[in-house]
Amino acid sequence: MTADASHGVDTPPELVQLLTPEGERVEHPDYDIELTEEEVRSLYRDLVLVRRIDLEAVALQRQGELGLWASLLGQEAAQIGSGRALTDADMVFPTYREHGVAWCRDVDPVKLLGLFRGVSNGGWDPAEHNFHLYTIVIGSQTLHAVGYAMGLQRDGAEAATMVYFGDGATSQGDVNEAFIWASVTNAPVVFFCQNNQWAISEPLERQSRIPLYKRASGFGFPGVRVDGNDVLACLAVTRQALRNAREGQGPTLIEAFTYRMGAHTTSDDPSRYRLADELEAWKLKDPIERVKAYLFKNRLADQEFFEKVDAEADALGKDVRGRCLTLPDPPPEAIFQNVYAGPHALIDEEREQFLTYLAGFER
Amino acid sequence: MTTLTLAKAINEGLRRSMEDNAKVLVMGEDVGKLGGVFRVTDGLQKDFGEDRVIDTPLAESGIIGTAIGLALRGYRPVCEIQFDGFVFPAADQIITQLAKMPLRSLGKIKLPVVVRIPFGGGIGAVEHHSESPEAYFTHTAGLRVVACSNPADAYTMIQDAVRGDDPVIFFEPKRRYWDKAEVDLGAPGLPLDRAKIVRPGADLTLLAYGPMVKTCLEAAAAAEEEGRDLEVVDLRSLNPLDLEVLTDSVRRTGRCVVAHEAPVFSGFGAELAARLTERCFYHLEAPVLRVGGFSTPYPPSRLEDYYLPDLDRVLDAVDRSFAY
Fold first, then answer.
1. For B43, what's the count of Cα atoms within 13 Å in the CB-facing half-sphere?
2. Contact B62 A180 (CB under 8 A)
3. What is the pLDDT of residue A362?
4. I need a labelling partner for B292 at 20 to 30 A (CA). Which of A76, B18, B212, B281 fits?
């Protein structure tokens, strides 16, 4: 038995869209957004720069400088749109693919690369950026986000949490438990699901019989599907959901309908499970091209602007590459550091023994 | 001095922790109005409110996962897992997140989360209510694992666990919940990571924790009548292990028997036997022997008296040690 889960390129009627793939501004009865020309240009710049970081990371992996990379190609608008909807006080819980959101939270891209290079399993201070560490176990972070939101409630903070996950994660028990907890506690949390159509090789109909945003109603909170390749719509919908959360109206599930244009990770080979035609169709909906068309058609940016952004992207790519290559390997004693906050005799003993053992080779 | 049951001693310890620090929360299934199925959290919701004593949805992974989130926000959650056999839905959050997030953050994150688990058998319960899962957690770096055995220790250990900055798996011997003893509510108690010689002796060291401490004390009393002077050491902390006290004891006595309810195979006793053999090899008169549950699932309760190591099985192991 199969069910229609709308995983193809056909746009379902529920989709919130403010900018068509051709770059036309369209109205939506429930969502609108007023942005200055400068703000739209700034979003375009974000999109281009994070794609460039991603491109550089893929190249670094191919050259053996990273062990792995999870590309965000195609998901830039979902991440920048939602990421730019956050206030500084909001807290973000990412998966391992939220490089665009990390950009919005001022996390140095080289720290992201460091994780995939293997110099640490995290490496940035979540409290400094209000951007939690990447979580690799699928869906685990949704519960952390709800717990954090319960803390915000107790603190009376004017802030919300936003948690990212993918279409595959919606099958996880933790994600469903997170929905329940958020619902019964009315937690100020926004569930931002990037439905990129593929959980490695499994299409959406392996995970769901219904559009994912419709799951929310069963848990008792609103769900909305937004064009995940439309940065304006993602920004508008997320802003509204975050505002509702901060104002005590509880959780929202946002399904950003998008497409993973690259492989799941650099270890994956999508040609084994999906047709090239599908990618070609989605290329016509590219998240960056439509903003460029909009800016160009409406004379909100000139050729000089686009060239400037491209030059900035090249410089950023070069900088990221250079600093990635000079990332030092951690010293062997790092294995033993930070396992516990307090003292631990056995770990101390093992560290001393191992360092003595290593020193034996230097004599 | 006040006479308290072990359950009430934990209750008093939690109460003291909540009074001392407004960030301390209690959360779990039925911990609020009901006071927990063993009444360990009795009265806390009434006194500290529903925001600090949280009746959670019936979802163990959710309890630990949201506790992690609360800890990231600066809270100090004390989670109750209702029974030992129900911790497994939460095992993923405990093992992949709670234990590893501080290291992942290079020390930026601290997760002061306490996971209280009533463990062990002997109460005539149905399946999944009598297990001893401690070795799963001692094998996971990043967790502190402790087990209390008596009311006085329970009172201070729970407070120390809450006060520390590391995640703690806190095992409570459920068949000893109703045991009473004198507790000095003003005494600081031994540090959480220290073992305690609960009965000094010269001839053999009995190592135990949680519910088996009482059994070993009874065994030592019986052995005394046969002229054997057994030392009983309560580990209190399984990770980290207070090897100094254990090593000193076994070197003095030259013999060691480890007792726990969990299956002997790959049980925590294996770690103790290996470590102590390494450290006390020239002092040992006999191999370190282990007595514990069989290599079977926990049996139906009509058979649990055969499964659980009792005074006689401990003394049988003692006899075997002396036979070398």
1. 9
2. yes
3. 85
4. B281
